[in-house]
Amino acid sequence: MLYITKRYSETLHLKGDNLGNIRQTFIKNIAIDLTKQYPNQFKHNDFQHNKKKVGELCDVGSKLLRNRIAGYITRYLAAQNKGKVTPPISE
Questions:
Q1: What is the Cα Rg of the chain in Å?
Q2: CA–CA separation, 3 vs 23, rounded Å?
């Protein structure tokens, strides 16, 4: 189980020329780590399913954080299925 206990700063990551939704890098990193650790647990087109799985697989303290992680997982997997995903820049 993944425990999210560290207090994260308000670091933002821009996607470059194609500016879309801005997500905090720790949300992206947690989401990508979860998809790598549990590759068959998430679906690319079902946010509700991904929300339940994030709640089961990691200890998230708030619903907002859980929903943001699940939302990014859904978008990440959908983009990965289309073949145009770029992982965030590691600090």
A1: 13
A2: 20
Mean pLDDT highest for which of 2-6, 12-16, 41-45, 78-82? 41-45
SS (H, E, C) 6-42: CCCCCCEECCCCCCCCCEEHHHHHHHHHHHHHCCCCC
Task: State how far Cα 6 lies from the chain centre.
Answer: 16
Confidence at 8, pLDDT banded by 50, 70, 90:
very low
What angle do the packed helices 63-82 and 47-57 form, to 10 degrees? 120
Give the per-residue pLDDT at 34.
Answer: 93
Domain ranges across the chain: 23-82
CATH architecture of 23-82: Orthogonal Bundle (1.10)
